[in-house]
Amino acid sequence: MLALVKKPHIEISIHGEHTDELLAWIKKKYDIAVLTDEPEDEFVSIESTEYWHEMEKNRIGNLLAGARLKAGLTQTQLAEEVGIRQNMVSDYEHGRRTYSDAMAKRLSKTLKVKEEHLKYGSEADSDLRNIRAIT
């Protein structure tokens, strides 16, 4: 069961025996909303969905598009600030072209994000895997 205590904002997941009793006790003190009382075995991991696989295929492009939108820039505005053509930004965002480390540096400076954020999925991702393997 997944429940949400509205104020203060607390999200809890309750499993096992006597969940109804525990929930009733929490309701005495807090206003709550039960988000789901479905058995966990009916849930699907997001990593197993088609949506996830599509997003993973173009992770770097999605990160670039997200950073650009967060900065409030159009593809044309970003292209002008970085000194490239708009269609190159589109190609980067749609995964039709990959950018170099030097371009990642230029993009990150313009978008005011860490360079590693725009390289996640390439060298940065393999570095993370190496760190996880060591620990």
Mind explaining what this structure looks like?
The chain is mainly α and 135 residues long. The protein has two domains: 2-42; 50-134, 434 Repressor (Amino-terminal Domain) (Orthogonal Bundle). Helices cover 56% and strands 10% of the residues. The chain has eight helices and three strands; from the N terminus they run E-E-H-E-H-H-H-H-H-H-H. Strands 2-1-3 form a three-stranded antiparallel β-sheet, covered by helices on one side. Helix 4 packs across helix 5. The longest helix is centred in the middle third of the chain and has 12 residues, at 59-70. It is elongated. The model is unreliable at 121-135 (pLDDT under 50).
In summary, what is this structure?
By secondary structure, this protein is mainly alpha-helical. It has helices at 19-29, 50-57, 59-70, 75-82, 86-93, 101-111, 115-119, 123-134; strands at 2-5, 10-13, 32-36. Helix content is 56%, strand content 10%.
CATH superfamily of the largest domain: lambda repressor-like DNA-binding domains
**What is the approximate shape?**
elongated
Distance between the termini: 33 Å
From N to C, what is the helix and strand string?
EEHEHHHHHHH
What percent strand?
A: 5-15%
| Integer count of domains | 2
Low-confidence sequence ranges: 121-135
Cα-based radius of gyration, to the nearest Å:
22 Å
Question: How is the biggest beta sheet arranged?
Answer: 3 strands, antiparallel
Helix vs. strand class: mainly alpha
- Average pLDDT over all residues: 79
- What is the tally of beta strands? 3
Q: What proportion of the residues is helical, as a percent range?
A: 55-70%
Compute the number of helices: 8
